[in-house]
Amino acid sequence: MSHLPAVQAERLDKSFPREGGAERVLDNIDFTVHKGEIVSLLGPSGCGKSTLLNVLGGFEKADSGAVLIGGEPVVRPSRKCVMLFQDYGLLPWRSLLGNVELGLEPLKLPKQEQRERAMRYVKLVGLEDKSASFPHQLSGGMKQRAALARALAMQPELLLMDEPFAALDTFTRYALQDELLRIHAKERVTVMIVTHDIDEAVYLSDRVLIMQPSPGRVAKEIAIDAARPRDRGHGDFQHYRKLILEQFRFTGSAAEEEFTI
Ligand SMILES: Nc1ncnc2c1ncn2[C@@H]1O[C@H](COP(=O)(O)OP(=O)(O)OP(=O)(O)O)[C@@H](O)[C@H]1O
Ligand SMILES: [Mg+2]
């Protein structure tokens, strides 16, 4: 196995045209993610998180700078990197198992092998008894699990997640966060996750990259050196939460109560 970093973002700049000029959405973004790390991108709406994820995945091009995945430049989307979208992206006319198999079809594996591999990942996310169900027969949390199974079945080096749990209720969100950590411990995939939710970032991440808008940039990097499983009620957790809140100047009694950016 090589010791190259999983992701290298090197001096990425990107602007979108605007009336009377251009808006700089990514400004000199420069960071490294190591193999097996979970890194969150946290920041207010419009600061460029989705744009950055799209550039990392090869879905959009930066104006300048480079992205390397496993040491190789990204010029277009590839199977090394899978993006998990918030709307799940499941095909309604395929069963859950059929949806998971979808990502494997380009590999042209023997039918039996394709089915077994898909089923292994359906089991990994705890949905074996729903494998024949269609997306409309699944709850939101189950659909998100199915999308995760499909992404993992492709055995990517890098999993990009854009607010994957934002549409879910608190209980399902917490359960899926635990599931992601359990699966991560087993598969050791590198994960980059966009979130608005400070608690989610502290609960999941090895490192949090804090982004600020206008121009979109990484303003601060915070390493979360707390053992897992993390306890949301523990002092360490509150310490990191406060550290992050301070970055957004949201400290104070009202902001401490309930917070999403
Ligand atoms: N294809 C595009 N064309 C023009 N402008 C765009 C395009 N995509 C994004 N933008 C602009 O770039 C900025 C950053 O958008 P982006 O979607 O990356 O933000 P974000 O941090 O993901 O926000 P949110 O948290 O609301 O999802 C915004 O001002 C947005 O309007
Ligand atoms: Mg976004």
Keywords:
261 residues; alpha/beta; Rossmann fold; 2 domains; 6-stranded mixed β-sheet; 4-stranded antiparallel β-sheet; 8 helices; 10 strands; disordered C terminus; binds adenosine-5'-triphosphate; binds magnesium ion
Give unreliable regions as ranges.
Answer: 252-261
Number of DSSP helical runs: 8
List all distinct small molecules, including ions and cofactors, that are bound in this structure.
adenosine-5'-triphosphate, magnesium ion
Query: Could you tell me the mean pLDDT?
Result: 91
Largest sheet: 6 strands, mixed
How are the SSEs ordered, and which strands pair?
Elements: E1 7-18, E2 21-33, E3 38-42, H1 49-56, E4 64-69, E5 72-73, E6 81-84, H2 96-102, H3 111-124, H4 140-153, E7 158-162, H5 170-187, E8 190-195, H6 198-204, E9 207-212, E10 217-223, H7 235-247, H8 253-257
Parallel strand pairs: 3-8, 3-9, 6-7, 7-8
Antiparallel strand pairs: 1-2, 1-4, 4-5, 9-10
Helix pairs in contact: 2-3, 2-4, 3-4, 6-7
The protein binds adenosine-5'-triphosphate and magnesium ion.
